[in-house]
Amino acid sequence: MIDRRQWIRCALGAGAVLGLNPQLLPAAEPKSLIRRAIPSSGEFLPIVGLGSSATFRSVAQSEDVAALSAVLAAMAARGATVFDTAPSYGASEEVAGRLARELGITDRIFWATKLNIAARGGAADPAAANAQIEESFRKIGVAKLDLIQVHNLGDIPVQLGILKQLKKDGRVRYIGVTSTSKSQYAQLEQVMRDEPLDFIGVDYAVDNRDVERTILPLAQQRRIAVMVYVPFGRSRLFQRVAGRTLPDWAADFDAASWAQFFIKYVIGHPAVTVVTPATSQARHMIDNIGGGVGRVPDEFARRRMAELIDAL
């Protein structure tokens, strides 16, 4: 029986994926992972990353987080770098920060977190907001965070103002705002027009295409990077395709699984910079990364993909 230290060493190499489907491995070579530029800087990011809501969050709250260590190891071994989290995702920030240090990959991760102090009487408490940010620094264990976004457009004047100062001070590289609520899209558009954002974070999937109308075109116009959440339609998509075979024409854009099919649809839009599906299983992490490899569907293929899902 190996101890934890030995297991971690194995996880960093080929041992991180022992027991996984070998057919998934060729699709996940780091050299093949598509990269897209952050418009405000020109820095390139691998197009598939890792989110920490949903199942990642649930496992992080348990005592046994070995599976999450394997997920992070598989992610790093295959060239993905973006890890998206938030203080509201339970223990995700702290657990991911600790596991990354144990694995020795802290400096290889693009750390993205959020600021989301509840506003009382319409205004967020600046002291509480600053305290939350300092906790994120402590939990993740870095001197500089790559990205902090105001979560769900909470009190933009106060909270985005704090992030602007952090960026000016050199403690945060990029700033932005997020919304996963259609009812907030009009407000999101206004913030995108009025504020100097590096990123926005939005929900987008083949069965959830509302951002295609105005949000994604505006991001292109304003040169704002787009981070996509819930590309699997909050798990609804897997329910809709359960028991169905992937169409033969999915091979035209190198999709070898339904997860890759869904990710390919999202990254087929040129405004998308990175997609961050959440998972607590290394084999799913590898499969997801495979969605960022090879050919990307063109507009004709994307319409065909949407029609297929809409018909289910």
Task: Give structural notes.
The chain is an alpha/beta fold. It has one domain: NADP-dependent oxidoreductase domain (TIM Barrel). Helix content is 39%, strand content 14%. The protein has helices at residues 4-12, 54-60, 66-77, 92-103, 126-140, 156-168, 185-194, 215-222, 236-241, 258-267, 282-290, 299-310; strands at 35-37, 44-46, 50-51, 82-84, 110-115, 145-150, 172-179, 199-203, 225-229, 274-275. Strand 5 (110-115), helix 5 and strand 6 (145-150) form a beta-alpha-beta unit. Helix 3 (66-77) packs parallel to helix 11 and helix 7 runs parallel beside helix 8. Mean pLDDT is 90; it is low at 1-31.
What does this entry show, briefly?
With 312 residues, the protein is of the alpha/beta class. Helix content is 39%, strand content 14%.
How are the SSEs placed, and which strands pair?
Blueprint: H1 4-12, E1 35-37, E2 44-46, E3 50-51, H2 54-60, H3 66-77, E4 82-84, H4 92-103, E5 110-115, H5 126-140, E6 145-150, H6 156-168, E7 172-179, H7 185-194, E8 199-203, H8 215-222, E9 225-229, H9 236-241, H10 258-267, E10 274-275, H11 282-290, H12 299-310
Parallel strand pairs: 3-4, 4-5, 5-6, 6-7, 7-8, 8-9, 9-10
Antiparallel strand pairs: 1-2
